[in-house]
Amino acid sequence: MRHMIPTISILCLVVLASGCTYETSSNTTQSGQDVNVANFTGSGSQSIGPFEIKGQSFKLIITAETQTTSDMGSMNLRISSSNYQGFQMRSFSGPTWSDEIEIDSGPGSYTINVETSNLKNWRIEVWDVQ
């Protein structure tokens, strides 16, 4: 189990016109030298980013809540950079859901197109694995 190891942290919170909240955080690490580079929260489908990755891979820690407790929710992620195009699809039932995805694609500037169905809200944490 990983533990958060806070270091000196600079936090920037921006509310984008699309209703997505984008939060960058520098120098926040998990054990193993993973660095939290961005956090996004939103509802509905939208594009998020860009965010910068310096390592050879990065993790997305995703949490989501469905509209009602009996809804089946889904989230599709189209992850893009100049040297990577990827797609991740997740479906779940129940009121809340969480998942962790690791992308091995090298350093670069990335964006994610988030497409959702029956979700009340979602959060995506981006961790640079260094």
Describe the structure.
With 130 residues, the chain is mainly beta. The chain has strands at 4-15, 21-30, 34-42, 46-53, 57-66, 72-81, 84-93, 96-103, 108-117, 119-129. The strands form two sheets. It has a six-stranded antiparallel sheet, with no helix packed on it. It has a four-stranded antiparallel sheet with strand order 4-9-6-7, with no helix packed on it. It is elongated and about 40 Å long.
Structural key phrases:
single chain, 130 residues, mainly beta, Jelly Rolls, six-stranded antiparallel beta sheet, 10 strands, disordered N terminus
Structural class: mainly beta
Shape: elongated
Assess the beta-strand content as a share of residues. over 45%
Oligomer: single chain
* Overall CATH architecture: Sandwich
What summary fits the major beta sheet?
A: 6 strands, antiparallel
C-alpha-based Rg, rounded? 14 Å
Helix residue percentage = under 10%
Number of DSSP helical runs = 0
Number of domains: 1
Average pLDDT works out at 81
Low-confidence stretches: 1-19
Task: Record the SSE blueprint.
Blueprint: E1 4-15, E2 21-30, E3 34-42, E4 46-53, E5 57-66, E6 72-81, E7 84-93, E8 96-103, E9 108-117, E10 119-129
Antiparallel strand pairs: 1-2, 2-3, 3-10, 4-9, 5-8, 5-10, 6-7, 6-9
